[in-house]
Prior knowledge:
Chain A has a two-stranded antiparallel sheet. Chain A is mainly alpha-helical and 124 residues long.
Amino acid sequence: MDDPNAHSLPFAAQKYALSDVAAALQLLRRKKHWQRLKRLTAWLLLLWTVVTFGCTYFARELNVVVLGWPFSYWMAAQGVLLMYLFIIGVYAWSVHKLDVMYGLQEEHSTVPASSAAAVSGHES
Amino acid sequence: MGKGLPYALGSRAWMARLNKLYLLYTLAFVSLVAVLGVLEQMGMPRSWIGFVFLIATIGVYAAIGLVCRTTDATEYYVAGRSVPAVYNGMATGADWMSAASFIGMAGTLYISGYTGLAFVLGWTGGYVLVALLLAPYLRKFGQFTIPDFLGERYGGHIPRLIGVVAVILVSFTYVVAQIYGVGLITSRLTGVAFELGVFLGLGGILVCSFLGGMRAVTWTQVAQYIVLIVAFLIPVMWLSIKQTSSPVPQLSYGYQLAQVGQLEQTLISDPKELEVQAIFAQRAKDLEAKLLNPASALRADRKAAQTLVASLKAAQAPLNERAAAERVLATMPRTLDGATSQWRAQLEVANTKMKPLNGMTPHAQPFAGDPDGSEQERDSFETSRRNFIALVFCLVFGTAALPHVLVRYYTTPSVRAARQSVTWSLFFILLLYLTAPALAVMVKYEIFNGLVGSSFDNLPAWVSAWSKVDPSLLSLTDINKDGLVQLNELSMGSDIIVLATPEIAGLPYVASGLIAAGGLAAALSTADGLLLTVANALSHDLYYKLIDPKASTARRVTISKMLLLVVALAAAYVAAQKPADILFLVSAAFSLAASAFFPVLTLGIFWKRANSTGAILGMLSGLGITIFYMATTHPWLRQAFGMQGEAQLWWGIQSISAGVFGVPVGFAVLVIASLLTPAPPLAVQRMVQRLRYAGPDV
């Protein structure tokens, strides 16, 4: 890209260095990865808000007996807490999957060959 | 666990060694409890059991501190970033759960029922924010402290400096409360004086953090977590077997809750209870009348007492009656101020005790008042619901912004481990937080079912034992003189719930020693983490980054240790003064942390455009609003600042939840001020981008 004559050549003949292509791909992957990470975070936070503040705001209305437990009480004492554990468990699991999918994880040993081969030279 | 380096970070061999060590440790601890139990049966005195628990546990913590001593900066500040996710989870659990969680929470839940669950929700819900918005990004950033992040992200010294001040404001009050707790438990466990207890406990804290910094604190906290969770779960499980014949109280206490609900209905309409309430209502009326005209009321009181003493003497009444009358006269307040404050306190008690159920709302009922009732009831319902949600809000955002918890996520080997580690943290915290509400309900059942209605001559053993130990924890007075216990005749301090559990469950004294050792572990581990955070903010951020950036590593660590000593002694000194309203200061810490740190940390990660001016103004305004609201609404602070008249509450929100105003203001000011000033330099924006993925930087 640093070559000032590059643009005067026909597209097919442009001589991009392989590392430039890799860097561009890397940027694109990071952008996509960040978008999906943000979306995941937003959905999980929405769920968190609903269980934390929704269940408590309507606690009086929802306090009917289910399976021997007053529902609102059970939610605040146990249900919502287990939901929190579920949310952060799902988050840790899916973000790692996202990292691997976009080749942005830390441990190189666990990188599947297919997704990282193209840029492995560049990353190190 | 001493020499972390022969093992690759997070390697299997490292994990296997840790697993083996802590398994052995747990077995040794359980056997110690068993041996003490046997010795108790053979006649070992109770005070010895307390001493053995104290010496054995503090000895182990100190030994871990010795083994882990270090002068290396990475080891000292972040435990060499070699703490596996599971162990960091346990350490965070111990770091997080203070004496308040261990001893106080079940009591709060007993007294306030559903309303108390705001603490359970807030103190766990915050971990979702830690996991999703902070921990992985801070781990990727990979420095030593929270002001480090503010300094690097926003540039310039001012954001870092405000960060240091806020860290000290938040953590110091908190550490004073922990050391206070340590002193209380040590003196109860061994019978030494409170002040001596404070300094004994301080020794245990210092050996550990002084020699080995974060590394020693981490491995001690894991050991302390094991002690505290064993100590909490065993007595509660035993009580659960006794009451419900199931060893899993979390599943089985629904039935107890239903029973408590029925007993509450019976008690509300019980004629004897109504009689006691009527007596208290009359007392409240009398006290109000006295307070209207205190000078003449005091004169009349004194005169009446004098006449009574004289007439008893003249009538040759029995000696004990005369002694009682003389005692009343002798303890009568001498000054007008003394009299009015005594009457105010009595009026407060009477006002609570004239209500059904000793002033408690039915256990499973969310909020006070009634949404379909009279205007006053509707109002009470709305205010109580609004305050519940505001409190959850403050605790959630405060939890996610407490510096001593956040730095724990600097210590994991990788970003991935940091994410897993939050999950483990919450798991280990839930073991206790799911159990405390069950304990509260089971004790309530025991009191409604076993104590209320029993005869004063034949009280359950644990009641007579504890009312002798400390009347402020438990006292009973036969108000209507019918010889039977009514609920409203019982006065309890919240700590009694956990402290008396072993006796209620019918366990031997060794279980009470175990509970005390668990409470000590909870207080010590939190104090360790907090002290280190305060000392590191001073040494790393203030001294190294702002005053002498050329200081060598060894010098930095030495300065850190010196400061640690100074901070610890200062905290112990303050705690030994037994400051009033220490609990308020702790709960205030959450609102302060939330409004100082949450906006500036999250926007620093998620919004590249946030800049230095925005950060400075955002932190100052958030903190400012929170402090202003607390100062103008909390009775004790109003008095300290010499304010007159009634407090002006905004939308009826209590002062403990001041952060509900500080956090949004902090966010808004940060955003507006950032947009009005130039974007941060490109290098900073690149740094923010690098935080957003786990892999190596390109």
